[in-house]
Amino acid sequence: MSDDDILARTIWRSPAGEPLSCREKIKVLTQNLQEIRELAQEALEDAVLMGADEAQFRDVVRALLDGLVNPYKKG
In the chain, where are the structural domains located? Predict the structure, then answer.
């Protein structure tokens, strides 16, 4: 399954688990992830071409994602 298929089949949900219904919100979420994927792909290619270890690069990207902070978190 391609990344585009994954994004097309993704049902975006609210924190309560309800599906988002606003088409514009879904469109923005999908576009943002497509842009992130493209940038990450380019960065991976650069890393490999420069001789970096692919597994380490992937670990660093995962750590970056895990470190993202939700500035809107309640509580």
Answer: 3-66
